Every structure is written in structure tokens, then in C-alpha cells.
Amino acid sequence: MSPAIDYGEKIPNNVDLAGDRRLQRALESWQPNFLQWWKEMGPVVPTRDVYLRTAVDVGRDGWAHFAHVPMDQYRWGIFLAERRGDRRIAFGAHQGEPAWQQVPGEYRAELRRLLVVQGDTEPASVEQQRRLGLTAPSLYDLRNLFQVNVEEGRHLWAMVYLLHAHFGREGREEAEELLHRNSGSAEAPRILGAFNEETPDWLSFFMFTYFTDRDGKYQLGTLKESAFDPLARTCDFMLKEEAHHMFVGTTGVDRVVERTARLMVEHDTDDVGPHGGIPLDVIQKYLNFHYSVSLDLFGGETSTNVANYYTAGLKGRWGEEGRDDDHRLTDATIEVDALGEDGTVGRVEAPALVGLNTDLRRQYIADCEKGVARWNRVLEQAGVTGRLRLPSVAFNRRVGAFAAVEATPDGRVVGADEFERCKDAWLPTGADREHVRSLMQPVYEEGRIASWLAPPKQGIDGKPFAFDYVHLA
Q: What is the pTM for the complete model shown?
């Protein structure tokens, strides 16, 4: 059982930070650097306070508290899910052994790398989204943006704590570097490509929080199974917060599609751009881009590194303990996506251990399909015949089996010249992005909303849509 979160401390925590004075001093020396990073790279819209959710308990009951909080006084801290004293490793070569409370020396470098890559994504998304508040379509949406931002900041704290607590001087140095890299920087970019892309408008933000944060959900889900118990408990709690980020994306795209469908019916046209909406084909292009970029985050279809992580017990599979197999996979196989000898998209059999990236990507794709089905129900209910769809796994890929070829959204492999001729029909053009940006006019009045999306069905924490979610400075 974890102790309650202590909000009397300079760094709120439920890991008894006061009992380790060396660690406490190290983290308190890192804290000013974090706050300076937040000041320089966090949200640019000046506010007095924001109606934010703050963790008050990591258990099942009442783990979040809502109140108006000044952004720079948000209580970032270190929260691990409750400890299971009898927890045992569920997979790999160490299956059945007690979970590790300290890092085994033979896995030190690999675990540190996993923490750094995960930690690097958290501040990156804050940096990508820092100017979005200037064009917020409503106070409700502005509040949701800020909630995502502060929680990404807390997720950075989660990884930094593990680096400081378990990796000595090297961990402290890595924690500093997490604040020195910046999204899109030419000199010191973020580690993963998707986190160096711009998030220039709210349609991009909704697609990012649906597709890219959903990748985060699945990556955290594999780390939640880790034999290294502090990492498992950290990710277990992070997943509670990550759910809100995906809610923002899911319902955000819902509302864009709903408004587009209404305008299509009202004006009897597919071209709703002149009527202040985002055309359905442009929504599809944004979907194609963000989905394909997010697929790359899972890595290649096969990976010996990931196989080694699994065997060592560092990363499991999504829903590991519910899987009906031996949890070692030494003799199992899986069909992985591949480019066939005839140049078509197909599958080949591979050892299940090296195909773990494919296994996780397919869990993710099945989840993404649910969102697309949801958005298509919105179109159907509005009487619109058009439908959205996920493109082929081979489309617009820069990592893995299809990185060296070009493919259409329906999975037909084509030459580079044909792709170049047709890509404007599949990916956002400069004109598409310019139109979307032209709609991004801020609406800061309580109860009002921009005309390019529908209002939400309900507000936050039982509050109505017309609520003072944000007090601007």
C-alpha cells in the first residue's frame, strides 16, 4: 500500500521523499530548472487560474480534485500506484520471481534508455502545443488543453524521479538533458520523430491527442507490466491521467465531424470551407497524416531489442496477464506485415518474440478503429454518406518494413513519381492547412464556441459548457 499523497511537501509525493534526504535535495535542485522550462516552453496564454484536476489519491476512490488553480502553482509531484507486496514477474525468463524493487545491474542500461525515451515524449508535447491557447475555440477547450499540458509535465516528473532514485549520476544527467532537448530544435531535437512535428491548429491537436497519445497509452501499458516494480506502478498511475488526453482527442474529432456534417446537410454541399467548416476530405487527410506518423512510433515490424526486453522482463505485452499462453513465447510465431517479393503489402511468419512490435501495433490499430467507427456514426446520424477510414499500414511510413516504398491509402505500392503526383489527395496540403488556420480564431467568452466545431455534450466535473473554466490574465 502506498502512503497518501503529501501536499505539505515542496514536491508532493507518495514515495516518502522526506525519508531520503539525498534524493529529496537532488529533486529540489532539479525543480527550479523544470519551472524555468515551463516558463519558457509551456503555454503562452497568460491566465490568472484554470479549473484543473489535481491528483489527491492514487487509489480507486477519489483520486482527483477539481479547483481553480494558478498554472504556475500547479502541484506537480511524484505519484506511484499502490504497491502489491506479493507481485511477481508475469513473463519472460524471470517469470514467477518476485518483482524487482531495485534495478538489476545487468539491465541497468536498457531500463535507463526506456525511461529516457518515454520521459522525452512528455515535455515534447507541451512544447508542440504551447501556442495553441492563442486560438482556443472555447474556454472549455482551453481548459482541456491546459489539463493535458500540466499532466504531461507531471509525467515528466514521474520519469525524472525514477532516473534520480535508481540511476545515480547518469540518471541525474539524463534528467537534465530532458529539459535541454526541445521539440523541432535543429540542434537538440526530441528523440522520436512525431514529437518534432508542429501542432499548429486545433484539428492537429485533436488528432494528436487521439492517435499519438493513444500510442502513449500502449507504450505505458507495456511498461506497466515491467518486472521493475517502481516503473510498473508509475505507469499504472500515468494511465489514469492519459485517459483524459485521449478523451480530448476522441470527443474533439467528434465535434469537428458533427459540425462538418451539419454544414454539409444545411448547405447541400461537400465543400463546407466557404461556410466556415472543415471539409470531410481535409479531416481524412489530417487523419491519414497523424495515424501514419503514430504507427512509426511502434518501431519496426520485427525487433530483436524488444524481444530481449521481453525475455528480460523489462517490457511486457498489452494485457500480459490476461494472455492465454506460456508468457515466454520461445516457440510461438506471429504473422508480421511485410513487403512481398512481388512488391505488394502482405504478411510473413516470424518468431513471436521478435514480432512484439507488430503485436502491440495491432492492439493499437484495433483501438483506433473504434474511434473511426464512432465518427462514422456521427456522419450516418446526420444523413451524410461519406465515411472516414484508417489508411493502410504501408501508407506514409518512414520506419519499418514499408519505409523504403510509397503506398496509397488503400495499400497499393506505387512509384515515387505517382505518389508525388497524388499525395495532395491523401495528405494535408499547404492550402488545406491555411484554410484550417484561417478558422482558428480565439473564442474566450464563457458559453460561446467557434463555428467550425460543435459544443461538447457535457462539461467537465459535472459543470456546464457555459462555465468559467479559465480566468485570463
A: 0.95
Does residue 73 carry a pLDDT above 60?
yes
Q: 49 vs 68, 135, 142, CA distance in Å?
A: 6, 18, 12
Looking at the domain assignment, is residue 346 inside a domain?
yes
All 3 cell numbers of residue 376? 462514422
State how far the alpha carbon of 321 is from the alpha carbons of 80, 87, 328, 402, 451, in Å: 20, 12, 12, 32, 46
| Domain count for the chain | 1
DSSP assignment of 166-209 equals: HSHHHHHHHHHHHHH--TT-SSS--SSGGGGS---SHHHHHHII
Closest to 76 in 3D by CA, of 112, 126, 111, 113: 126
The model's confidence at residue 61, banded by pLDDT at 50, 70 and 90, is: low
3-class secondary structure per residue, 318-367: CCHHHCCCCCCCCCCEEEEEEECCCCCEEEEEEECCCCHHHHHHHHHHHH
Q: How many CA atoms lie within 13 A of 214 on its CB side?
A: 31
According to the model, what pLDDT value does residue 4 have? 66
Tell me, yes or no, whether 10 lies in a domain: no
CATH number, domain at 142?
Answer: 1.10.620.20
